[in-house]
Amino acid sequence: MTRPSVREMREALETQILSPYAAKSVDAVRDRPEPPCPIRTAYQRDRDRILHSKPFRRLKHKTQVFIAPLGDHYRTRLTHTLEVTQVARTVARALRLNEDLTEAIGLGHDIGHAPFGHAGETALSRICSSHFRHNEQSRRIVEVLEQNGEGMNLTYAVREGIYMHSKGRRDITAKAWGTASTLEGQIIKLCDSIAYINHDIDDAIRAGILRAEDLPADCIELLGDTHSKRLATMVGDMIEYNWWATGEGTPPDPPLISMSPPILAATNKLRDFLYQTVYWRPEAKVEDEKVRFIIETLYTYFLRHPEEIPAELMAIIERRGEPVEQAVIDYIAGMTDRYALAVFKRIFVPRTWGG
User: Rounded to two decimals, what is the model's pTM?
Assistant: First the structure.
């Protein structure tokens, strides 16, 4: 008798150990059917495709908050992605949900971010004829741009979680682009905020922009007075408040992952505090204007000189019958901070200026 494959044994194990609310790998759906892997489940396969992709590797040189910081200990878009994924996996494991699906969504959720963080995203959104959002670009990368225009052929649950991780400005639970149909996708949406709120405070204190005593006293009293304490409070609250997701207890109607009202309110207040004191501070506005100038200048230049856009990208755009502007957006959005600066310098700064 032939024994089951490693993948089949894992799929069978999922039905035994995972919550009835968990997304099971055996139920995963792809747009293009493909032979299953004998070792990895569908969600493990998705995780690996994202992890080994060029857009994922470029995240290490994309800004999280601080543009070109003087120091190696500030977060980048890559370290943010890893922190989000690890926090989310902790929650998913505790709630007996699918860690592999959670990890795949977490690793892919920000691969569409433009250079220079949210300043770059805002700049692109202002100048392109259709608006630009990093979650939409992340989905475009995995569905369209990768693999020479064929996309990664990820499962629906992963693509949905990537697209729907973004949230509204005032509430980390806001629907914005919708709510993921899987609890694993919903976990990523919340853990994205939990991660960046805490690590952006840490980086802001390191940069001398904030002092620990500047943080709202009521939030600190409830959430904790250190980075690790706040993380533990928020993660612990997510697990406790959503214990129904394990299959024990009565789920809310509809069954949505959230946080307890007091912890959610404090988390939202801390997030708003960061907007007022870190993201929107006067010094940041100056940097934003520089980013806007660089992005707009590159955009105008490549619209006039599409022959300088990589040929493989132009081939995808032409095959799909999309306008040149889309190629320009895809090209700039895919740049790392330092590559965008290098291209800008190469095109617009005369060699004689640099000596």
Answer: 0.94
